[in-house]
Amino acid sequence: MTYIDLRSDTVTKPTPAMRAAMSTAEVGDDIYGEDPTTNELEARAAELLGKEAAIFVPTGCMGNTIGIKLNTQHGDEVICDARGHVIDWELSMTAWFSGCLVRTVPTPDGILTWDRLSPYIRHISPHNSPTACIEIENTHNMAGGVPYPVDVIDDVTARAHQLGIKVHMDGARVFNAAAAQNLPVARLVRDVDTVMFCLSKGLCAPVGSMVVSTKANIDRARRYRKQLGGGMRQVGVLAAAGLLALSEMPARLVEDHANAAFLAQGMADLGYDCGRVQTNIVIFDLGQRMPVPQLLERLKTRGVLAGGAGGTRVRFVTHHDVSRADCEIALAATRESLL
Ligand SMILES: *Cc1c(COP(=O)(O)O)cnc(C)c1O
């Protein structure tokens, strides 16, 4: 059985063009800096984001870990939203690798405005460790793919920098944020100190994420990547797919967003409010209707895969490998499953 897989955009398969590029990629030993395809990908990512340098890492989790490490000293504090990927889905890496305490801020929509986060800032004193880094997630996954308004990013970065605090963007889906707001990614990341984004999600590469920052930071990042076991050798076979992820895939993300809006409207018609869906993530609350695993099981028997989003919530994620017709089937399956 082939499923309509709405569990995540991580399930996207490399496109035929990616597989072809991978098979002919020029490679070398990247630890010696001699993999031409990886060097090209890193240069291209830095250029696209308007920063000095970039490094290819195996996963977004490693990219966030390195980004936070670059912005902190052991014993500092890091602020993030209470439903942030770094606090909930990255196996305590901020504590384990950076030795920092994460202070979480509850928000209704995943967006850390200055008003919301500033009460959580700590300054060095005989009793407090300082806040060294603010982490913002763009788009915010568990809040339903919410993109950060660019004026909020500008405000948070400006005020943080006045206090000597760095800003890391978990931009796993920053290309979705850019597409939804019709802005260049470079504009969204202009003032952040470090940014991680994933090639492996909506951009369809099989593996990999990028950390983008200053040249000095990326030089340090190479050491941290190696310490974390992420130093790779003839990795150009993966970078070749990454290059196509950057050149071919961003422009089509609006299709995923339209499909997500379609699903959200369908769910609203069934009485399940999904909020204002702006990108490719649709989350609704089942309440007491039925347990989440029961709905997921019923959907699966109808050929549709979805995921839980904590508590009584269900998540659909649209991507390259689901079409509008698939979304129509998924919606009908959901309607039947809820009967
Ligand atoms: C997917 C994701 C990551 C990285 O996940 P990996 O599976 O480690 O690549 C980071 N942040 C957010 C918000 C994500 O959705």
Structure description:
This protein is α/β, with parallel strands linked by helices. It has two domains: 16-249, Type I PLP-dependent aspartate aminotransferase-like (Major domain) (Aspartate Aminotransferase, domain 2), CATH 3.40.640; 252-337, Aspartate Aminotransferase, domain 1. It contains 14 helices and twelve strands. The protein has helices at 16-24, 36-49, 60-70, 85-88, 93-96, 114-117, 150-162, 174-181, 185-188, 215-227, 236-248, 253-269, 292-301, 324-337; strands spanning 4-5, 53-57, 77-81, 101-105, 131-137, 166-170, 194-198, 209-213, 281-285, 304-305, 307-308, 313-317. The chain has a seven-stranded mixed sheet, sandwiched between helices. It has a three-stranded antiparallel sheet with strand order 9-12-11, covered by helices on one side. The longest helix is centred in the C-terminal third of the chain and has 17 residues, at 253-269. The radius of gyration is 20 Å and the shape is globular. The protein starts with a strand and ends with a helix. It binds pyridoxal-5'-phosphate. Pyridoxal-5'-phosphate (PLP) is lined by residues 59-61, 64, 85, 137, 141, 170, 172, 198, 200, 209.
How would you summarize the topology of this molecule?
Layout: E1 4-5, H1 16-24, H2 36-49, E2 53-57, H3 60-70, E3 77-81, H4 85-88, H5 93-96, E4 101-105, H6 114-117, E5 131-137, H7 150-162, E6 166-170, H8 174-181, H9 185-188, E7 194-198, E8 209-213, H10 215-227, H11 236-248, H12 253-269, E9 281-285, H13 292-301, E10 304-305, E11 307-308, E12 313-317, H14 324-337
Parallel strand pairs: 1-10, 3-4, 3-5, 5-6, 6-7
Antiparallel strand pairs: 2-8, 7-8, 9-12, 11-12
The structure holds pyridoxal-5'-phosphate (PLP).
